[in-house]
C-alpha cells in the first residue's frame, strides 16, 4: 500500500522522522536523509531521548531511528510526521545472516562483543563457528532475527501521523512517487520536493546507486543485491519449515502472507 492510498488525515508537521529495522533499508534511508538534510539545509538528528530535548523550537528538522524505537516524548508530539519501513522477514533473515558473517566492528560493534551465553565468543564468531549454512540461518533466526521481528511486531501500525512503507514497494517505485508524496505531505514547496526526490533517486539502487562500482563504501558493505522477494529462491526448505513453525503467524500479522501455506512457493 502506498502513502497515497492510506487516506491519512492531513497534518502540518515540521519534523520528519524515518524509522527502519535491521536490514529493512536502514543504510538506504541513512544515505537518503543525509542527502536530504544537505539539499534542504535542514538539521538531521538521531532521534533518541536526548535528541528530543535538543530539538529547536522552530524550523524543520529531520530525524532517524534505525530500530524504530522513537522516544515516547517524540511519539506524543503533534508536529511530527513518521515514515516507517518494514520488509518481508524472510528476506531480512537471509540478508542479516549473510551480513553478520563479515560486518566489521566499525559498523556493527555488537557483533564483536564477547558474550557469556556464547562461551566468550562474539556473535560473529559464534555464527562462523557453525559449519553448516542452514544451521547458521537457524542460529540467526533464533537470535538477532527474532529481536528484529519483535520490533516490527511491536510497532503501532494505526498511527494517523505515520506513513507505512514496505521495502518491496519502495524498491519498485522507480518513479519515486511514494517518497514525493511523503515530502508533499510534509509541507515542502514544489522546489524543495524536487530537491528531495533528487536526493532519494541519487541514493537508490534503481537510481544513482544502480552501478555497483559507483556505490559508496558504506552502501557496498551492506548491500549484496537489494532485490525484493529473494526468499522463494534462496531460503532452504528445512529453514523455511522451521520459520513457518516459529514465525508463520507473524508473517500473517505483518501482511506478508494470508495463510500458512507458502512453502510450495519455494523453488
UniProtKB/TrEMBL annotation:
It comes from the Bacteria. SUPFAM superfamilies: P-loop containing nucleoside triphosphate hydrolases. This is Sulfotransferase domain-containing protein. It comes from Thalassovita litoralis. The lineage of its organism: Bacteria, Pseudomonadati, Pseudomonadota, Alphaproteobacteria, Rhodobacterales.
Amino acid at each position: 500500500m502506498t502513502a497515497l492510498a492510506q487516506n491519512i488525515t492531513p497534518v502540518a508537521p515540521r519534523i520528519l522522522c524515518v524509522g527502519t529495522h535491521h536490514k529493512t533499508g536502514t543504510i538506504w534511508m541513512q544515505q537518503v536523509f543525509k542527502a536530504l538534510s544537505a539539499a534542504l539545509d535542514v538539521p538531521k538528528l538521531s532521534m533518541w531521548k536526548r535528541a528530543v530535548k535538543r530539538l529547536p523550537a522552530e524550523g524543520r528538522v529531520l530525524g532517524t531511528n534505525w530500530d524504530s524505537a522513537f522516544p515516547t516524548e517524540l511519539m506524543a508530539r503533534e508536529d511530527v510526521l513518521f515514515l516507517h519501513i518494514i520488509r518481508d522477514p524472510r528476506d531480512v533473515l537471509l540478508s542479516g545472516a549473510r551480513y553478520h558473517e563479515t560486518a566489521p566492528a566499525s559498523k556493527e560493534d555488537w557483533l564483536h562483543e564477547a558474550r557469556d551465553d556464547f562461551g566468550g565468543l562474539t556473535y560473529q564468531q559464534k555464527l562462523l563457528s557453525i559449519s553448516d549454512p542452514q544451521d547458521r540461518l537457524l542460529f540467526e533466526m533464533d537470535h538477532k532475527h527474532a529481536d528484529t521481528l519483535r520490533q516490527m511486531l511491536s510497532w503501532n501500525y494505526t498511527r494517523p501521523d505515520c506513513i507505512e512503507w514496505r521495502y518491496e514497494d519502495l524498491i519498485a517505485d522507480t518513479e519515486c512517487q511514494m517518497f514525493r508524496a511523503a515530502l508533499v505531505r510534509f509541507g515542502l514547496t514544489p522546489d524543495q520536493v524536487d530537491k528531495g526526490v533528487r536526493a532519494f533517486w541519487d541514493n537508490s539502487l534503481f537510481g544513482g546507486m544502480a552501478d555497483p562500482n559507483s556505490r559508496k563504501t558504506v552502501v557496498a558493505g551492506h548491500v549484496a543485491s537489494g532485490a525484493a522477494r529473494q526468499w522463494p529462491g534462496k531460503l532452504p526448505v528445512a529453514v523455511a519449515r522451521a520459520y513457518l513453525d516459529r514465525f508463520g503467524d507473524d508473517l500473517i500479522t505483518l501482511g506478508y502472507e494470508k495463510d500458512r501455506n507458502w512453502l510450495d512457493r519455494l523453488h
